[in-house]
What does this fold into?
Amino acid sequence: MSNTVLGKSLSRLYELYCENGGRVTTDSRSVAAQSAEHDGVGPIFFALQGENFDGNDYARQAVADGAVAAVVHGKMPRGVAADSEEAHRYIVVKDTLAALQELAAHHRDMLGLPVIALTGSNGKTTTKELMARVLRTRYRVACTKGNLNNHIGVPLTLLSVSDQDDVAIVEMGANHPGEIAALCAIARPDIGLVTNVGRAHLEGFGSPEGVRRGKGELFDYLAAHGGTAIYRSDDTTLASMIAERFGEGSSAVAVGYTVAELGVSAAAGTHDDRLVIVADGAGEMATGMTGAYNLYNAAAALAVGRYFGVEPVDALRAVAGYEPDNNRSQVEHSANATGNTLYKDAYNANPSSMAAALDNFFGLPVAGRRVVVLGDMRELGDFSEAEHRAVVERLSLQPDLDVYLVGPEFTKAAGETCPGHVQVFESSAALADALKRGEVTIRDAHVLVKGSRGIALETLYPLL
It folds into this structure.
């Protein structure tokens, strides 16, 4: 292993990984609990470095709490002599993150199962959850937990896959060029899916075309390694990306699908304003998700299920049974005196997902007051002011709507000329104070809450 020093090899590290049941962690605080749960045998602790922390500082405590080994960078932790009895519990490497990634890539090579990778500007996590539920009707499935989809999360996901699993689903996120390619080099997917290409992470990718190229790195990998791309063929952007990469004579395969060809459509919103799927031969199926746009996430899961031989009716039931619990596409009726119905979608936001959420909200067949609480869209760089101003201008033309905009970007975009139905707050805390003081009252309303995670709009839920 080129990354290691002091004679510790990748094979030895992998032996330790296998001997302790395939458990690793980057959080020293979790070691004691894992050790207690597994008869005193803890995970391997990887001492990662960050801008404001050094995992080496926590390595000795991790070992004391039961870690079978601690992978540290550069040298032994302070106070541990190289020739001491304690020293054998540490593996010293040049770069602990690289060691984690190399271990994950090695484990992936040892796995005799297909790996599905998915990325996209919007809908990644929801599609991943739906795919997992569809495939679990027939297979044992390991998949990314939450949205651990970056250069740390993807290795941790791969290392959570066991030889008892039949298929693995790996979500990949990125906000800069080259990141998807790097994740593919670790996960080495056999099958890939890009949900869509939208105006997300423009600051890191530089432009919409940069986003297209960045997401296309998954297709690049599949085309170069004889993989299979599953894509929505009536999405002109995705179709052109496929055409650029999957030509005649290639060992790679592109499998297209459309919502119509899968025999599904979205019914008018009923069942507490949730998405209702109409399936050929199966009638209507109410899902746990709000938003007609989730039909495309469901269709992606159905297409993957079809590729893996899942019975269509089983796949549809799996989709219908999914209840979001991750602050995405959730509908909740307030249990308190406000009487509001909340449409909770405040985990992430970009111009594409914001437009889709607003389109869906305006199209809901519900009566009564409508309110939108929108937070800043992060990571837009030079495009930020124009994109926020476009949202403000759209909402300014909706006088029957009560609008509350939150965050410095919306504050700047709104300026001093907002109409009376639009109010602007510098932060979620400022809007919370206004709600508590009664300066803002939101009751008996349908309320869309949408914004980037950094704005913390979810802190407003108890008041709404």
